[in-house]
Specification:
This protein is an alpha/beta fold. It has five helices and eight strands; from the N terminus they run βαβαββαβαβββα. It has a domain at 4-139: P-loop containing nucleotide triphosphate hydrolases (Rossmann fold), CATH 3.40.50. Helix 3 (94-104) links the parallel strand 4 and strand 5. Helix 1 (16-29) packs parallel to helix 2 (45-53). Bound molecules: zinc ion. It comes from Sulfobacillus thermotolerans.
């Protein structure tokens, strides 16, 4: 039995977790068993969203919070029909082999993750996972500045330079034109106390 891999990707605020939830709900209606993996680094809004949305059917779903390097040793997925991974960009490259193995074992695999980090670099193993996938869906938020164009950039509102800074309030979604404009403007976007109502200095 051949498995199947679908990758749902795009920037922050683009609805990846909602789409992942929709696919999981669909699988549950079909009475399939579902295991959901997410990285320990990101017990965050998306995971809580998925838990809340699946509340009534939670008994049929198993959540696994795991370390980002832990994929090689996972065994409990053997009984699942459907395996969902959220925030896949945070996992170490071992995830690629795990996903291949799952497909060979006939699993349906749904993977949600950021395509790019805040500096437009491909994030973690998402590029490799997109190559492997049977289907790829790219979602876009709307730009929070021009409120018109599709957002490509998860723009970081803080000065941190590490690749991983978790927390939706630290980011906003920008289109490429607004990103370039903000990059050229001295000081970039101002970070308001409520994490919104931003403007170029
Ligand atoms: Zn824009």
């Amino acid at each position: 039995m051949a498995g199947y891999i679908k990758v749902i990707t795009g920037g922050m605020f683009s609805g990846k977790s909602q789409e992942l939830t929709r696919l999981i709900e669909r699988a549950l209606i079909a009475e399939l068993s579902v295991e959901i993996f997410y990285p320990r680094v990101a017990e965050r809004v998306s995971v809580r969203d998925i838990r809340t949305r699946l509340d009534k059917k939670r008994h049929a779903v198993t959540f696994h919070e795991i370390e980002t390097t832990q994929f090689a040793s996972i065994g409990s997925w053997d009984s699942a029909d459907v395996i969902a991974v959220d925030e896949a960009q945070f996992f170490s490259p071992q995830i690629v082999e795990a996903v291949k193995r799952w497909r060979h074992h006939g699993k349906t695999v749904y993977i949600a993750g950021l395509d790019m980090d805040y500096q437009e670099n491909p994030f973690g193993s998402m590029g490799a996972l997109m190559c492997l996938a049977d289907d790829v869906v790219k979602l876009h938020a709307v730009c929070t500045q021009c409120k018109q164009h599709p957002a490509m950039i998860s723009y970081r509102l803080t000065q941190d330079a590490e690749q991983i800074v978790v927390g939706e309030s630290n980011y906003t979604a920008l289109c490429l034109q607004c990103y370039d404009r903000v990059q050229m403007a001295e000081g970039g976007l101002r970070y308001s106390a409520v994490g919104s109502a931003l403007s170029v200095d």
